[in-house]
Write a structure and sequence with these properties.
single chain; mainly beta; Maltoporin, Chain A; 26-stranded mixed beta sheet; five-stranded mixed beta sheet; 37 strands; globular
Length: 682
Amino acid sequence: MKMLLRLSTCSLALALAVPLAAQDEAAQDSPPVTVDSEPRPEIIVTGRGLDPALSTGIYATTTLEREVITASPSGRIEDVLRGVAGFQQFRRSDSRSSNPSAQGVTLRALGGNATSRALVLLDGVPLADPFFGYIPLSAIAPETLGTIRVTRGGGSGPFGAGALAGTIDMESAEPGAVNPLLASAAINDRAESELSGVLTQRLGRGFAVASGRWDRGQGFFTTPADQRVPASARAAFDSWNVALRAVAPLTDEVEVQARVAAFRDNRTLRFEGADSFSQGEEASIRFVGRGAWQFDALAYVQARDFGNVVISSTRFTPTLDQRRTPSTGIGGKFELRPPLLEGHDIRIGADYRRAEGELQEEAISAFTGAITERRRAGGATENLGIFLEDDWQIGPLTLNGGLRADRTSITDGFFRAVTANGLPVNTIAAADRSDWSLSWRAGALFYATRRLDIRAAAYTGLRLPTLNELYRPFVVFPVVTQANADLVNERLEGFEIGFDWQPVNELVFSVTAFDNKVENAIANVTIGPNLRRRENLPAIAAQGIEASVAAKVGRVSFEGAIAWTDAEVRGEGASLNLDGNRPAQTPEFAATMTLGWEPAPGWRVAGTLRHVSTQFEDDRETDRLAPATTLDAFVAAPLYGPLSLILRGENLTDEAIITRNQGGSIDLGVPRTVWLGVRYGF
């Protein structure tokens, strides 16, 4: 796989080198030519995909601009996204102090487990781990981004089979939007550090961007003081990511975009020796045509790996070494926008994704340290989707309708456990299976007045179980969670109605009421003392209201978002008995407010207040996570030219944020943390 990625990297570099070099040579060697005809317009290469469809405004959508993305108190992407109504991570921990495999993201409090129910894209490429389905949050550098568009509700367009709860679409910054050199360095009161740099270079009519980031530190104690033992450890972290992206025009209307990237993330959680790592390499190439017949063609390859050591909470010695989980993801899409009918924006296309991987782990005796069992598990999933969507504009009314057909398959699934001497203990060979599914969405946007838009939509969605859910058992001591090779696809049905109102130029309101239901929702279901199994619940139903407000008066700004969700499990039977329970890790209410002030050019002072209501650790509602209210701050003060002084504060009130509670065994989130740093060019 590493060889494949090296070859992919070389191929992408060569593919871009030819047009870029030709442009430079032409610029240097060709004398100016004067002709009598009209001058040709300058080719503008943006590095973006096609413009968002007209129907974007029909569905509940929040767009985060670069000024918000680069002013996060923690400097991390998950902190940026917490400002969006309905955004939720599986746990309250950030990407410095959680197990990487628990970094699932969703929207609208649809609950479940650590697998992402929202589709997360970077420049059109899905980011979810091929084996686990989590998002490698530490591999996303906020300083490289230009915009983030969050759309809630099921999707039917490209890669729509992953957009069960919605889509988080991130786009890299355009070269004209940032300085050629961005650099930052910061240190906090625990001597933890951040370093980042972004270099943008114009190459003929194209450009290239090289970026890198390194975060490291001793971390904080996630274990409360009254539960610590000599083996308790700080949540140490050491992560880096690098990327190279290049964009060049092939013709006046077609550009090619290529990207290669790599990351590594090492963490320690709770006990000495409870170390985990995640790493990945990826490459993608994309062709975007902006002529009359617009198109977007993409291909990508990903290689990921994960390892984790489980430490006994009674003897404090290793009990499990999940030493490797190598996985590969490949995929692509083609989308065409033909100009067939006046007033219509038609999109036709297909996409494909394949994920394969294998768990490799050894069970270890906590008493002797000897290997007692060797386990292997894995398989492959595939999804081929065909989609058709149309936006029809009739005066002040925009109508949207979309259909999507998906062929999903799960193949080569297995679980095998043998003793240290190679004697079989347990063997599962799952039958191959495949299916066709149809998804759709429809909606309308009515421009009632110049300042009031009214919208309504209905939709369905689809998500395949991941290889992790199907075949990998895991332990968060002392709780064992079993895999389930018989899991079926999740299906979402939902509708919503809302409005966007701008009574004056300086004030914008957005309100959405929704009703969503996930059938066959995959959850970790308790089946005995310290024993859970992944099961398809009959359904998780969620109804709620999302609202946001943005206001600016002179140099003062205010942004707020709230999400209230009434979510419940619908599950009956001898093994479930969960009917009416709130899904695990699902808050009823979440709110965020940010007050900003820019007293002079280059200055930025902001404070953010966040509140998350009570959640439950488990499906039985026995372990409670108390509500948490935090206060964060961000200050940027210009020093000289593009150089600024940065002061950031996380959880300034030192709120006890409970992120895990298993029978009274507690983990905590980030305590009060103050950062001091400088940055150049932002």
